[in-house]
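Long-time lurker. I teach an intro course on protein structure, and each term I like to show students one example going from raw sequence to a predicted 3D structure in token notation. This year I'd like something fresh instead of my usual example. Would anyone be willing to generate the tokens for the chain below so I can use it in lecture? Attribution to the forum is fine with me.
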Amino acid sequence: MNLPMEGFKVLELSRTLAGPYATMLLADMGAEVIKVEQPNTGDESRRFVPPKWNEESCYYLSANRNKKGITLDLKSEEGVAIVKQLVKESDVLVENFRTGTMEKLGLGYEVLKEINPRLIFCAISGFGRTGPEKNRAGYDVLMQGFGGLMSITGDEDHPVKAGMSIADLTTGIFAAFSISSALHGVKQTGKGQYLDVSLLDGQVALLNHMATGFYADGTYPKRMGTAHGTLVPYQAFKAADREVILAVANDGLWKKLCLGLEWDDLLKNEKYRYNYDRVKYRTELVDILSERIAQMESIEILEKLEKVGVPCGPIQNIEEVLTHPQVIAREMMMDVKHPNIPNLKVPAFPVKFSETQTTARYHPPLLGEHNNQVLQELGYSEEDIEELKNKNII
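-- Reply from a regular --
Happy to contribute to a lecture. Here you go:
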């Protein structure tokens, strides 16, 4: 069977992570993605090193597979004209310039929808294209702070960012989902539309029950390390050899934990029987659990709790995750054939389709790798292309 997005063409005018990640997800699903980069310099993520692999940025490699790559000077008349030609035959355009930049280039939505009324125009930005902050640039760490994530992440006195670029990546996911939905709408109405996707909106959406809770009673959670505001014990504990996670999400699991570790005294203690009370006596109970767990090896704790069905596990480093039998069985690292990296591996698409599983059809493109192919398909001759090269337009 064909991949779900086969037949759709996506023109990508984005760089760094949120936009490229969104288009990579679409490309994994079968869409033809043409990535447009600045001549000579390219996507700035090509220079986000370390880490690098055979002189290629791992940042770039991880977000740009299954795409064709061309270079265009968007400040030139010829470059803008080529974009407009590509728009005629594209279903989607994705850009993440500062607010107003596409309009200054003569490539705003109002212009492009006249060329292609079915076009889905996805604009990704830090703060969105409306509102008092619309002109501000937005980077991942800034949005983790501005969007509330860092206010609830870290120890009491030390806010920290998430280890990965969570604001960029979730924005990319939201963008890919919205584009897919909008394409379904085109089938029904025959009309495209403008999608305004921002890192800030994505972070607010991720606040989820915490945002609702604030409007319910005016309170909001504080930073609690690995602990949970409404569940106890639901956090990391230091065993004799390493930290382990206990996820006791209900009273039934509390009973199983006490039985599994033979803590009859805690099971019989009425103060800890119900989660409401365990939250009330959090400090006292966590101190007791911490002292006991510190005397045990992690393997003993995990084996006993897994036997009785209590969710638990170690805090693994990246090597442990990638070499774990479950991750290997799920084929979550994808081999990609690359002209400069003989054994390139990147994280795979994280959903398993029974009939249309994704593959790595193309390596992350070298800078301008598909210039000739794409321009020839638009009708440019070899002489035309050579002239564009000499003028540094491609």
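Some talking points for your students: The first helix runs from residue 18 to 28. The CA atoms of residues 227 and 312 lie 14 Å apart.
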